[in-house]
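Quick start: read one record
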Amino acid sequence: MNFGTKESSNPGCSPQRRVSASLWVWPNSERLELPTSSSKNFLGNDLDEMKIFVERQQAIRDSVERLPARCRSLIEMLYLDGSFRTYQEISQLVGMPAASVGPNRARCLEKLKKILQKRGLE
């Protein structure tokens, strides 16, 4: 997984989106972010904050690894590999109709949410 900064070809993509990977695990405004080392505000100067961040980031990565292969692949393509693919591009890569990417994404995120909750990450 590459969490490095990558310029997006998508003009609507915000700078924050280019710098961090977001997992939309909870509905509405709640989201779980995996900031990169180049994010300006992801760590304070406090070592305890850094430890918590690293542990949480590792727990999220471990949880993604526990997903079924198809979900893991979809989540990585959508959020973690930094390539900012469209649903059409993803559909061609995974062999599903583009209209199925969104519903599959929602199901996979729900599975990830359950894994995270079992690990105490809420």
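Helices lie at 15-19, 47-65, 69-80, 87-94, 98-118.
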